[in-house]
Every structure is written in C-alpha cells, then in structure tokens.
Amino acid sequence: MLRHVLDAIIDEFNAGQCLRDIAAHWACRCTVPGPGMRAAGETLVRRYQENGASSAELIPYPADDRTEWLDGNRTSLEWQPRGAWLRIAAPETAAAQICNYADEPISLICNSHPTPPEGVEAELVVPAVPIKTDEIEPGQWKGKVVLTNQFPSTVAAAAHKAGAIGIISDCVCPPWLEKYPPKREPEDVPDLVMWTIFPGRRSDPPLFGFNLSPRQGRRLRALAAASDTPIRMHAMVDATLVEGSSDMVNASVTGTDLANEEVWVLGHLSEPGARDNASGCALSLEIARMLRVLTECGVLPPLRRTIRFMHGAEVSGFLPYIHGHRDDLPNVVAGLCADSIAQDFRICGGEAVLFLSPEQNASFVDGLMQYLLQTIHDEPASRFSPDNYATYPWHAEPYFGNDAFISDGFFDIPTPQISVWPDKFYHSNQDTPDQIDRGTLTRSAAVMGAFVYALAAADKQQASWFADLAAQDWKQRICLRTRDALSTDEPEARLPDEIHHMGLQAQDAVTQTTRFAPQSGTLQERTEVLVGNLAEFADREAQAARQSLGMGAARSAPETAPGDGTPDLQLIPRRLYWRLPGRDVLGDETDDAVNKLRTSQGADARRVWPWINGRRTVREIQQRLEFGGSVDVEPLLECLRLLEQADVISFAG
C-alpha cells in the first residue's frame, strides 16, 4: 500500500545535503545543555526554515536544577566549558601533556567543576581493585586525583567520600551496555576516548574529570607502577555550571483537515556523535523537506495531520514541552524516535534495530515499521549505493525506552525507535561523519519518511491496513515463540498462558488503530472481527501447545468470568502521574494500605500501574495481569480505589 510513497521518497531524498547537515551538527559537539547544544539547535531552526517548515523555534526551558516538570523531574544545570588540559607534572623526566579540551572536547568529562585559573597539582592514585563506595574510607584520597577504568559517574560518590578532587577514566564501556553485547573491550578500540558525564546537580561533589583512551591510560598506569615517587598531575578546567537553559527545537509541517492531530518525530540533540545523534536530527530535517515538497507538488496526497519535529536533551529535554501540553496528548496519534540511524556496518559493525513497543502498551506501529524495513531490505542494493554488496541487515528487539518513552501508557503515543547496534565506536570521539554510509542513510530515510507520511495521511482505509499488519505481526510472534519454547530441552509449562497473554497484546495493537478514524463504523467492525480472530488463534495455539507439552486440553473458559457483572469492572482508570508516586505523594496511610494489599492479596500497584493507559477497563487490566500472577477482582479494585483517593489516578466509564 505504501509502494508509491517509498519510491517517491527514495527519488526525492537529497543524501548530499543530509550528509552536510550531519557534519554541521557534529561540528557543534553538543553534549549537555549549554553553548554547544544551543548552537546545534539554532542551526536546526534555521535549516527547518530553509526547508519550508510551517514553523520553527528554539524554546529555552530552564536548566536550573530547580524547576520541576512532570512529577518532579528537573533539568540539570547548564554547563559552559571553555578550556581544559591535563599534564604529568612529576617526575620531571615524564612531564608531558596528556590531553587538551581544545584538541578533543570529549576528553573533558561533561559537567566538570572548574579549577583555579592556574590549575591544581595533585598526586595520582591508581586503585588496585574496583572502587566501591562502601569500601572507601572517608578522606583516604584527600586532595588527590584517581585513575580508574570504571564509568566516572558510578565512582563519583566514592571519590567525593575519599576526598579526591578529580577523576581520570579510561573506561570504554558504560555498565548498562553490558546487557547489549558485544561488550566493548579496551583492546578493541585502543585510541577511543569515551564521552562521559557527571549529573550536573547542585548537590554534586565539586569534581572535575578527564577521559583517556586505553592506550593513554595504559601508559599512565605503567608510569605509576614503575615510578619510585608518586606521580603528580597538573589539571586545569575552565568551565562553569550555571542556571541557564536547556534548549528545545520545535518545528512543524502543518496538516490539512486534521491539523489538530499530530505525529511527533523526536531526535535528541544532547550527544556528540555524527551517528548519535547528528544523523537522527539531520534526517528529521530532510523528512520535513521531502514531505513538504512531495505533497505540494502533488506527487503524494496532502498531509492530513500536522507533523511536529522536536529536538532537545535526551528524554529530559522533551519533558517541559510535554508538561505544558499534557492536555493535548490525546491528539498525538503516534510518533517516531530517530536515534543513530546511518552507520557504515562494514566499519562499525551492527545492524539496523527496531525497538518494539512496550509489553504493557502493544501497538500497531510495530507491524507497520517491520513491513517497511523488510520492504526496503528486499530492494536491490543498487537503488541506494554503488556497492551491490552493501546490504541493509535489520532485526527487532524489545522495548528500550530512550526518547520512545512516550510509548508508555501515561502518554499513550505509540513510538517505535530506529537505531543501529552494536556500534564499535558508540559514544566516543570516533563517532565521526566519515562513518556515515550513504546507502544506509537513504534506506533509513525511505523507511522513516514513509512511516511518518503514512501516519500523517492515514484515513480509515489505511487504518484498517495498519490493523491487518498488526494482526499478522502478532500471529507470527505467537508462532515463533511457540516454536522456540517447544525446541528447548525443558519447555516451560507456562507456554499456553503466555500465548493467551500475547493474544491479548495482539488485540490491544489492533484496536489502537481506531484512533485514526474514531467515528468510522466500518473500521470499528473490521477491528472487532480481527480481535475475534486473534482470540480464536491464540486459543488454538495455546491448546496445541498444551497437547505438545502433554498437558491435555484446557477447560473452556466460561462465557462470563467471575465478577464480570460488577459495574466497576467497566470503569477505565487513567494515570495522573507518569510513574507510580511514592510515599511523599500517596501519604503514609495510603502507602501502608497499598503495601498491605500487595503482601496479603497480591494486588501489587507496581504491577498494575504500567497497564493503565486510559483505554483499558479494570477487567481488561485484570486479564493482562494474569500471566504474571493472577489478581482477584476485589483486591484490584481496592488498590485502584486507594490510588484514586490519593489523586494519582482518575476513573472514566
């Protein structure tokens, strides 16, 4: 159905200009709220205006670590770096400069505190074991600088407790990436300098820090081990943490008859790489231009909905805008997260990755995006690159979060994330424009441009197709999960229940498509048929799985489940907070009552909370909780009533 859209975008895409935009954005070296990010934002606003966007502005939200957005979230202070260097001061025979901010800005840890203008001289400490805060003695490194291979922010508290004034790190892999192998090892990238960051809060210890490559770190460690006297370092940091602004780019291409409805494209500013995330920002610019040109020239039908492009600090930079427009969120039908989308796989490794919707808020967007990715994958490489062997490998992975956090049920904006992974040079000085592959960039432009256009132009016919894609997607997932589970040496007895659970998610994904034409009886009827078919399909597959597991046939579920006649089960809870509030909001009495329900009757508010999306009834929430441990009707209702009394949810229905 989108074949002509894909062809039009491929023909219109200006790869050369997009590559120039990537290089210009990368040159700003924007990392955290401050001058670099502001310069990148100003450039994006100018380029959106040149590309014919209906509007484009840079909004300076407070970066003061005081102003709260969306339930207490705060933006860190603005960081203004001007210069820095690190030298070996003693012994004299080894005196040399190690790194300089002017040569490599990433060598200075973001949000580092300043030193006196002449710098500070301090003894170097090289711990023999990993640094752990609870094993550090207060003041044991007073006035010294610590060399570590750990991620700086994870040892900042320990360094402060020990009285250290600075941290030098040759870490090449942050701890959270160990969950996404392969783990980057020092010998993989001997000259890579990793981008790292301190939190930038008022309460942070006054530390400065420098990042070294593995080769630099190895030399410094060898010098320390061989020296008869302590190594002394001389460090100078000229930077300030101030109450400033975290700037967000807000641009739009206005729709026609449904201009009040929106599709969001989010690409964060706050990372210094050409791929992460200059590529996401620059491709957003080109999508705005292409869709305007193609619709104005009549190559494609007009956009019905407004497309809004937003660029700010990752996650936190978007919260102020969302906070100010939270009442308008129901008008946002879907979104797209553009994050690192165009690397040369031959240099950096990896594949294109589609991060799917969260389990608790399954969506049709997964099926649509997978269709587009596979369609482009199957195209001849010659359409995108002079290299006929330059393929476009891709795969899907579970929900990751990132700027796709708006997929959560509180926002209820289905938003797939397109990225590349693994990336050998992730978050480093070696994420450079020369590693952008024109063919990968063009393919990503086709996939993402067609996705955004399809959402912005959709009517009831396209919405019905979205529903069909969602149904096929979930049938395939159920079949693959069954195959994999039954192929293990000890298949899990929970497989039939898991299939039923996936069937419910499939129904959620299909019914979500009605937001594109809520008044259409035809679309409503179509989705109801698909929901019924999916329920039957899941039931058949679950029964077959039971037989394969030697469990026999399950008893048929009663047509009316216990409690279905209770009117309260048809109520629809809606969250008034993004995350489940704690005792400070719930109050002592309510918090105690909620915890008592969890321990005595299994009605765990922490499990219930993510399934509340403002569309599910209490009964539907209960059904979706059954796979993780059943919850009876009365305790569930009591839990929700307690949350209502604390003004953290409301009811409709």
What report would you give on this structure?
This protein is of the alpha/beta class. Helices cover 37% and strands 18% of the residues. It contains 18 helices and 19 strands. The strands form 4 sheets. An 8-stranded mixed sheet has the order 1-11-13-12-14-17-15-16, covered by helices on one side. Strands 5-4-10-6-7-8-9 form a 7-stranded mixed sheet, with helices on both faces. A two-stranded antiparallel ribbon has the order 2-3. α6 (278-296) links the parallel β12 and β13. α9 (365-377) crosses α11 (460-486) and α11 packs parallel to α13 (521-548). It is globular. The protein starts with a helix and ends with a strand. The relative contact order is 0.11.
Number of helices: 18
Shape: globular
Q: How many domains would you count in the coordinates? A: 4
Task: Please identify which CATH superfamily of the largest domain we are dealing with.
Answer: Zn peptidases
SSE class: alpha/beta
Mean pLDDT score? 95
Instruction: From the 3D structure, determine the CATH topology of the largest domain.
Output: Aminopeptidase
Task: Give the end-to-end Cα distance, rounded to a whole number of Å.
Answer: 36 Å
